[in-house]
Structure formats: structure tokens, C-alpha cells
Design goal:
Length: about 325
């Protein structure tokens, strides 16, 4: 099981390679939600998302022999860039298996960071194909079902607790559950201070309809395979969570809220207009979830919303808006 000490060690491992991203209070969101609201701007991380944290922590652990054989990963976007960047930085070859419908900007970015790309018909087939490359000797850098990866993502939580020791609530989006689980372990097991009650911090997970593998698993009490990813939030598009991440979410998270794509798009526009940053729906869904759960906060709450990534194109947002108007 992943411990707070594992996350502390991960921070030491990755500190030379990743940014400590800012956490700032938002007056606009504080007024809107009637409490104290802070944004963790993880979209300012190198590659535009939190993913390099886990990728670096995993690859730093590899032996020289493992590094010489390279790594393989499966991703619909952000993990691909995180692995490619970490691998190139550490002098390791990377191969990323991606679904054929991956947006061109994600493909270009992953190649730009030095990865070789192989396209598969869908994300499920990409996960199935990875075993062939593992058999050939490559190390699999799983996007979430890996203790070193989860510990790396958990370093986001260490920064939150240090920069906002009075935190009472954290919102983290869920694809496979690695970020939310790592952050929860970090903040709930952090060192107590006069301003912090540590283990009493509530962590809320967020998904979108059509990319809600964790919510469905929680409802069923077991891992559930999604027949397809239909949400626009492609970076939340894990076809299934795993026994490990399901257990961690059951143990550490308060709940998982599933919001609609329309809510996520509306919040992208709100965040762009009011906070002046351009985030992806896998990030904006956290604000939509906080809006739904606002009755859980008091005026004395201190709510941190993680904007975990900002990797999608303006053309894509325009298309979403056009599609929405067409349906009206």
C-alpha cells in the first residue's frame, strides 16, 4: 500500500525535473461558492498536466538494463506527453500506444517530446497490445495502476497542504484514479499544523458522463469495463479502473460526482473568462462538481480545486459550442 513516506520520497526523486505549480485564492470563485476557494494550477506543469510527476517517479526507479530497452505506455493524451517528456529527459526511448481517434494536437505534442506513436482502433485495444511490448522487454508505465506513478501524482497533494494548510476540501478529477488517490493519501496523512486537521480533509473525485469508470465501479462494488468512452473529456477515458485504485478511492475519497459534458464546457468558458486560463474538460469538471456540492461547504471552509490539465485546442472548443447550438 502507498504511504505518505512514499509520496515524500517521490518528491525528492522528481524535484529536479518538475515544477512546483502555484496555488492561489480566487476571489471570483470564493464569492460564487460562498466560501474560500483556491485553484491549484497544475496545468502550468511541463507538458500541460500533472502526468510528468508519476512518469518521472516510475522511470527514475528503472535499472540501466530496463532503461536500455525503453518504456511503453497507453494514453489518450496527457499521459503520453508526460511519459515522452520524462523518457527523453532521462535518455530513455518511449513508445506510446494511442487510440486512432486521438486529437492531432495530442499526437503532435507526444511526438514533439520524443515519443514514437502507434495508433490502435480504440483505447481498449491499446491496453491489450501493450502486453506484446512488455514481453519484448519494454517497461510498462501504466497511467494509474502503479504505486510509483500514484506516489508521484500524490506530490500535488503535498504542495496543496503546504501552501494551504487550512484546506478542508479538495476536488480532483478521476480517469483511472491515480491522481485523486495520491492526493488523498498526501493530504489526509500530512503533518498536523495549527491550521490543519490533516486526516479530516475531504477529497472529492469527479468524472464526466461517458467516462465514469470509477463511479460505476463504486456502485457495483467491483471493477466495471466501460463498453466505450463517449465523453468529450478524453483524458478521463480509462475503459476501467483497477482493483488497486478502486480500493484507494473507497478508502480515501468522500465521494465521486459525475457531471455532464455540457457542465464541463460551460465551466471551461467561465474559467477562461474569469481566471484567464484555458483548461480541458477533465479539469473544469471539478468546478462543476464543486458547484453541485456547494451545500457541503461553510463560509469557513477552504476548498482547493485542482486544474489538472490544459491540453486541448481552441478549434475543439469551438466545435463543442457549435454542436451545442445545433442541438438547441
Amino acid at each position: 500500500m502507498i504511504t505518505h513516506a512514499d509520496i515524500q520520497q517521490a518528491r525528492k526523486n522528481i524535484e529536479p525535473y518538475v515544477k512546483r505549480t502555484p496555488l492561489e485564492r480566487s476571489e471570483t470563485l470564493s464569492r460564487r461558492l460562498g466560501t474560500n476557494v483556491y485553484i491549484k494550477y497544475e496545468l502550468f506543469q511541463k507538458t500541460g498536466s500533472f502526468k510528468p510527476r508519476g512518469a518521472f517517479n516510475k522511470m527514475i526507479s528503472l535499472t540501466d538494463d530496463q532503461r536500455s530497452k525503453g518504456v511503453v505506455a497507453v494514453s489518450g493524451g496527457n499521459h503520453a506527453q508526460g511519459v515522452a517528456y520524462a523518457a527523453t529527459t532521462l535518455g530513455v526511448e518511449s513508445l506510446i500506444l494511442m487510440p486512432a481517434n486521438t486529437p492531432q494536437n495530442y499526437l503532435d505534442a507526444a511526438r514533439g517530446y520524443g515519443a514514437k506513436i502507434e495508433l490502435l482502433p480504440n483505447i481498449a485495444e491499446a491496453f491489450a497490445e501493450v502486453e506484446r511490448y512488455v514481453a519484448e522487454g519494454k517497461t510498462y508505465v501504466h497511467p494509474f495502476d502503479d504505486e510509483l506513478v500514484i506516489a508521484g501524482q500524490g506530490t500535488v497533494g503535498l504542495e496543496i497542504l503546504e501552501d494551504c494548510p487550512q484546506v478542508t476540501d479538495v476536488f480532483a478529477s478521476i480517469g483511472g484514479g491515480g491522481l485523486a488517490a495520491g492526493v488523498a493519501i498526501a493530504v489526509k496523512n500530512g503533518t498536523r499544523t495549527p491550521q490543519s486537521t490533516a486526516e479530516n480533509v475531504r477529497v472529492f473525485g469527479t468524472e464526466t458522463v461517458g467516462a465514469d469508470a470509477m463511479a460505476q465501479a463504486l456502485a457495483a462494488g467491483r471493477v466495471v469495463d466501460l463498453p466505450a468512452i463517449t465523453s468529450i473529456a478524453k483524458t478521463l477515458g480509462a475503459p476501467a479502473v483497477t482493483e488497486r485504485t478502486l480500493r484507494l478511492v473507497q478508502d480515501y475519497l468522500e465521494s465521486v460526482t459525475v457531471v455532464t459534458d455540457a457542465e464541463a464546457v460551460n465551466e471551461i468558458i467561465y474559467i477562461a473568462e474569469r481566471l484567464k486560463v484555458f483548461c480541458e474538460p477533465a479539469s473544469s469538471c471539478n468546478l462543476a462538481a464543486a458547484e453541485r456540492l456547494r451545500e457541503k461547504f461553510t463560509p469557513d471552509s477552504h476548498v482547493v480545486i485542482i486544474i489538472c490539465g490544459g491540453n486541448f485546442s481552441v478549434d475543439t472548443l469551438c466545435q463543442w459550442k457549435a454542436d451545442a447550438y445545433t442541438r438547441l
